[in-house]
Amino acid sequence: MTTSWHDQVIALAGKTVAERYLPGLPAGYSSENTPEHAAQDFKILDTLNKEQPIHIALYTTTENTDFPLHCRLMQRQQPIVLSDILPMLENFGFRVQSENPYKIISGNDTAYYISDFTLTHAYANIDLNTIKPSFESAFLALRQGRIENDAYNQLTLAASLSWQDITLLRAYTKYLKQTAFRLSQAAIMKAVVSHADIAKDLITLFYALHHPKDHDDYLAKTIQDRIVLALADVASLDDDRALRRLMELIQATLRTNAFQTTADGRDESIIAFKLDSHRIPDLPLPLPLYETFVYSPRFEAIHLRNTKVARGGIRYSDRPDDFRTEILGLMKAQKVKNAVIVPSGAKGGFVVKQLPQGPREAVQAEVIHCYQGFIGTLLDITDNILKKDVIRPKNVVCYDDTDTYLVVAADKGTASFSDIANELSKKHQFWLGDAFASGGSTGYDHKKMGITARGAWESIKRHFRELGIDVFTTPITVVGIGDMSGDVFGNGALYTDQIKLIAAFDHRHIFIDPRPDAKKTYEERK
After folding, report:
1. Using an 8 Å Cβ cutoff, are 436 and 447 in contact?
2. I want to staple 437 with a disulfide (CB 3.0 to 4.6 A). Which of 329, 418, 470, 483 is the partner?
């Protein structure tokens, strides 16, 4: 009773640690926190650094019986902005009753910010010891941008799922959006969160089918039967439809990178599913043989293949809501175009979800980062050939036959990325080497050489020559299909300054020029 609050903190934390923070405590801290709390805070602040600037702790206290549940957030250098934090906590299923904020200046003038939130929630029979580690891990992942801030995070409390498991369900839902599934993302999310027990069984089914060490076909059948039985008690037809489709997607998954580790080179925030398109109900036609969907908080991507041996480019898409529809149409066209090259066509595309508001260099850096994540993840789950032996990917359960042929050509928005793709091929020791991506410094640059356009224009030159017209000296009128961003028409229009372009259209624009000036428009096209 005669020992001061400061002396108790020194005794608990140690003199060196305590004296680093005691002089910089704000007014009111000592009256609102016990010496035990303070000593624990100081020890945690000592561990924060540039690489790990945040600490989160979920705990209960006996000091306030009305609101015993607390969340204590500590942050180095950066203030804690309530407009950022409150939506995160609410999406985990918490209601924030109050906050006690503190700013502590350490002996070396480093600022630390602490917010102690008083919380409530609506979930019965929650074991704090069970959810504490998963919540703390999920919150840190959210602050680091490794997961998205949405209501799926409620499954941390409602179903005791880890953020990695929740990301699996989120990724399947994002894929559903691209398949023209009739329910909205919000409706699917509500269905999953409202039926936490079924959501947990969906994850158990995923593990039983795809975990490289624990997969168990008998258990998978048991879980599937249990899910179907539980669906019979789901009152909403829309909820039933959403949950049933998620189960079907898990069953249609042929490979996934979900159980590859960082030792395998995997980024945990990126999830990939290779799917048997013919096992997914109601997909828009034509059906590919395989499709691989890649999800990340920073990008989403898809690769569609008509057959095992199929060639096609990777496109940087500007259609986040329906990029699969765009890629599907291009895959169909590629199938026809490739008939004289390889047996069939393929196509891939990706969208960037967090483009920076800055200079072009920053935007390009983010696009390249997402492209690397997409291509590297495709290689992570693709078979390789080493000394004529087929090597299956590590920590992947493969339900399909050997599948070693994967190429990624240049396309719209990725014309200069061939070297990047081939570097990834080299890193993965992929058997195709620099044939993995056509173009680049070791191949043909489609953009500079206008390879596809060149073939088309050789045909055009011959056609006009047979009519007695030289397209390089005589003006010709043209109607174009496409644009100037790298397709056949666009590249071809750079071959001669005699084109009078009277009209053109693509999926975005219609262009009309009744009185074109061939010389002037040629300079503009260049």
Report:
1. no
2. 418
